[in-house]
Amino acid sequence: MIVTTAKHVAVETINGQAIAIIYEVSGGWFVSEGYEQGCPVAVALDVIGDRWTLLLLRDLTHAPMRFTDFQAINPKISPNLLTKRLRSLQDSGIVVRRQLPPPAATTVYELEPRSREALLPVLNALGRFGAFLFENAPTGPSEALLRQMRLNRHWVLAKGVDFEACYRFVLGDHDIGLTVGPATFEPSATPPQAPDATIVSDSVTLTRLFNAGHTLTAAEAAGELKITGDRAAALALLEKFSLAPLAA
After folding, report:
1. Highest mean pLDDT (candidates 64-73, 97-106, 228-237)
2. If you average pLDDT over every residue of the chain, what do you get?
3. Domain 140-241: assigned CATH number
4. Where in the chain is CATH 3.30.1050.10?
5. Where does the HTH hxlR-type domain start and stop, copy by copy (predicted)?
6. Whose C-alpha in 34, 68, 187, 191 is 20 to 30 A from the C-alpha of 158?
7. β-pairing, 95-99 with 29-31?
């Protein structure tokens, strides 16, 4: 185990992966704050286990975020608590804040590169666990699906969209529409009459696909995903949804 410290932040190389965590040094021992256990899981939770923290990190895996972006994606978090969580992540060295040059001239938050590398598989695994929980959850109304779709708006547009297309999503019993463009991301409870592409699947399959737990080839071969119409347009959109590069 190689440990290099900066202030109270340590970057541990474990199984070839760099993981940023907070330590206090006491008598030559590294002692984690909070749970006060030597378990790496407990140490990680000391840093990222607070309410909302993992969701903020989830958002940052897609793109740098402004304070208002976090508020738009997570409307239930108060401004004071959001400020506290972001400051804690900065103090730990996991998140950095920088000023964008003109014409943007705004402050954004982004993941420190080594933290991003270490956190991405963790968030992917949590997404796959969420998909496992979805499998036994009752099917919700279309409005719940629309809320889930709207959650992706900031992530997709923050990544940059250089295409315009109209999509139809058939997910289980739900049939919705989605119009996407460089500055457009509009879900609709009414499916389009002439979509550029139609994606037929289910929430579990797409969640696994977007979190590196499934591949396009396997999903299509198993009949869990069907794309009709403009395949390139469909894949371009699915790529924007995905936390990691979409696996073929």
Report:
1. 228-237
2. 81
3. 3.30.1050.10
4. 140-241
5. 39-138
6. 191
7. unpaired
